[in-house]
């Protein structure tokens, strides 16, 4: 299988699995590191590069034509927020975004 086909399969399956549900995530540094590690594992395998080859992550992403998965998720979350802000107030997503708990003490 050629490299372009492998990359298309990666984009359809692995990247989609890594990004699934990310519009509602609260990103933490540890999760970002794990996402990057998973992406790099996929890309190294896809390109036939081992850790012993001592290739840095940026070089591998460039060879695969891939963007950092954390940056993609940040862009996706930003687009999702803008989408929810444009929604009608009757939509559940918009209501959840604007929800403010009532003070029970008063």
List the helices and strands and how they pair.
Elements: H1 3-12, H2 14-19, H3 29-47, H4 57-64, H5 69-86, H6 92-98
Protein model, in words:
The chain is elongated, with a radius of gyration of 19 Å. The termini are far apart. It has six helices and no strands. The protein is mainly alpha-helical. The longest helix has 19 residues, at 29-47. Helix content is 64%, strand content 0%. The chain has helices at 3-12, 14-19, 29-47, 57-64, 69-86, 92-98. The chain has one domain. The model has no long low-confidence stretch (mean pLDDT 89). Helix 1 (3-12) packs antiparallel against helix 3 (29-47) and helix 3 (29-47) crosses helix 4.
Average pLDDT, all residues: 89
User: How many helices does DSSP assign?
Assistant: 6
Q: In percent, how much strand structure appears in the residues?
A: under 5%
**Distance between the amino and carboxyl termini:** 66 Å
Biggest sheet details = none
Structural class: mainly alpha
How many domains, as an integer? 1
Rg estimate, integer Å: 19 Å
Query: Using DSSP, what is the number of strands?
Result: 0
The residue fraction in helices comes out at 55-70%
